[in-house]
Design brief:
It is a single chain. The chain is 78% helix and 0% strand. The chain is mainly alpha-helical. Helix 5 packs antiparallel against helix 6.
Length: 289
Amino acid sequence: MKAYLQILRVPNLVTSAGDVLAGAFIVSSVGQGLSGMVWLLLVSSILLYAGGVVLNDVMDASLDQIERPERPIPSGKISRSHALMLACMLLAGGLALAAVFSLFSFYIALALVSAIVLYDTWAKKYAIPGTLVMALCRGLNLWLGLSFLHEHFWDFAFLALLPFLHIIGVTALSRGENYGYTRTSILLIALIPFGIFLWLIGFGMFKDSFSLMELFFISLYGFVEGFALYPALREPKPAFIKRGVKYGILSLLLLNAAIVSIMDGGLHALIVALFIVVSSWMARTIAMT
């Protein structure tokens, strides 16, 4: 059972659900509120993310024999053919649930699956395409949540740029997990969350009111990003970079919460932020990368 929890990256699945819930909260702020049917999009996102990480391990099996022999496939705990079958089933299940919700949601889920497969089979082999496609996956995941209300989708579609940029930083940082980085490289990567932090402050102030709750969630995002990157800046070694990647993934939930606090208020932002507690607890025993 533990091998399956590892290959599914269960702590990361929580962050995926957080993307979709944030999107649903944002778009429903101008509609009639959430309905119970949102679970279809939440589970769809979880299945798509799970399928993507399993397919990633299938494609990386040979390399993991050398660099990460403890992973389920190279260690022999799960066969490569079985993992491939599992990945296909998960991706198909995610598409099916999105289609049950709406045709528009299905189209977004189909775009997300295309980006996932493109990343796992080709893009990740190259620094720039891999980084951009991975970031696109998280942007599309927020769009999946925004598809909860198709009629208001395009009013908020631009907000997907924020997780897109955030994951560019996290993915770029992850490329130093095995061999380290230079301080200059990490400093350049750190400019991305810093720019997002400034944008959130500016966007919040641009709206009619800027509450303490909004400032709290924006500041919390900035604090966790600093907490993630500062040790790697001091010593750009693989161990500190892996730590930075872990907290960078988790802080995406806080970015989502900050956006929700600006668009829809503090209560729903708190619900999204609490996902980080669940994900962090799981990450104590199950690796996120």
